[in-house]
Amino acid sequence: MTASDLISFARGAPSLDIIDVAGLKAATDAALTQDPGGALGYGTAIGYPPLRKLLAERHGVAEDQVLVTNGSMQADAFLFDQLVVSGSPVVVERPTYDRTLLGLRERGADVRPVALDLDGIDTEELAALLDGGLRPTFAHIIPNFQNPAGYTLSLAKRKRLLELAEQYDFVVFEDDPYAQIRFAGEPLPTMLELDEGRGRVVYASSFSKTVAPGVRVGYIVGPKELVARVRARATNTYISPNMFAQAVVYQFCVDGGLDRSIAKVNAALAERVATLCAALAEQLPEAKFTAPEGGYFMWVELPEGVDVARLLPAAEERGVTFVKGTDFLLEGGASTMRLAYSGVRADQIAEGVGRLAEALRSLRVAAG
């Protein structure tokens, strides 16, 4: 079996067929026509100024509260460098993004996972920990269509989390790259909006999920003093981020390309989720899952006793892959997996689930 035959539920990226290639070509031409100097020259660490201004307007903040970076992972890294105090507690969701765990542990954080429910982090479990003496520096939260679970933090929990942050004096790091990838349900206000300028929230997002992963354009919004410190770190790291990519993204936004792209991606992913749910129900009926209302990911629990560390190589032998749930946890999760449906065409999904089912059957046969 060749690499081209592999059906991958592993990568959290849109497949090429739902990326607006023509729109990005037009945006590139517009960027080079209207502002060749800005697009092709060195800038400063604040990012491409027109894009920074646009983002400030969209979030209702001053421009000096925004910094545009080379993707949101770099924004996360800069923020972790400023916020993590080695040996001090940091709250994360359980499970959470594997790169978040890696970045925090590399910086010496005392990572404290709190259970993730269908409506987001268990705020009452967090409240009990805080009442018992936990004093985190910050809580890292992926509020919309969480990676890896696909769950969304409810409005009531968003408000409760902000109350706890105020009461116990910690920051909420709102890591929100999936907010606009919604194909069911109603949008919710960000915690940045709900905070109403009190400075309890640092917000990060990205255009990788709404435009294309290769543009590598992300940004942060936060208190001016914190953003200034991040800007100094960015200046010392690269002087200027990728101004060309940021200029293209800006033109894509102002010309309506972003809205068209989001509509196209959302329609495609709604179809893929429906197809994936149907395929799992038919071919892996023992699997437990909740259909997400947006985003790229679905969390799947297999029966107790299934070891995904053994299932993964068996699946890859049959031409399908996924990410083990254990990658997103400090402990536990041996029978869980994350399925990313964003990069798999709808006509591949049933075949991919069929291969997963065959791999699972092979483990059971081998076990006798």
From TrEMBL:
<dbReference type="GO" id="GO:1901605">
    <property type="term" value="P:alpha-amino acid metabolic process"/>
</dbReference>
<dbReference type="InterPro" id="IPR015421">
    <property type="entry name" value="PyrdxlP-dep_Trfase_major"/>
</dbReference>
<keyword id="KW-0808">Transferase</keyword>
<protein>
    <submittedName>
        <fullName>Transcriptional regulator, GntR family domain</fullName>
        <ecNumber>2.6.1.1</ecNumber>
    </submittedName>
</protein>
<feature type="domain" description="Aminotransferase class I/classII large">
    <location>
        <begin position="5"/>
        <end position="356"/>
    </location>
</feature>
<dbReference type="Pfam" id="PF00155">
    <property type="entry name" value="Aminotran_1_2"/>
</dbReference>
<dbReference type="InterPro" id="IPR050859">
    <property type="entry name" value="Class-I_PLP-dep_aminotransf"/>
</dbReference>
<dbReference type="InterPro" id="IPR015422">
    <property type="entry name" value="PyrdxlP-dep_Trfase_small"/>
</dbReference>
<keyword id="KW-0663">Pyridoxal phosphate</keyword>
<keyword id="KW-0032">Aminotransferase</keyword>
<dbReference type="InterPro" id="IPR004839">
    <property type="entry name" value="Aminotransferase_I/II_large"/>
</dbReference>
<dbReference type="GO" id="GO:0030170">
    <property type="term" value="F:pyridoxal phosphate binding"/>
</dbReference>
<dbReference type="InterPro" id="IPR015424">
    <property type="entry name" value="PyrdxlP-dep_Trfase"/>
</dbReference>
<dbReference type="GO" id="GO:0004069">
    <property type="term" value="F:L-aspartate:2-oxoglutarate aminotransferase activity"/>
</dbReference>
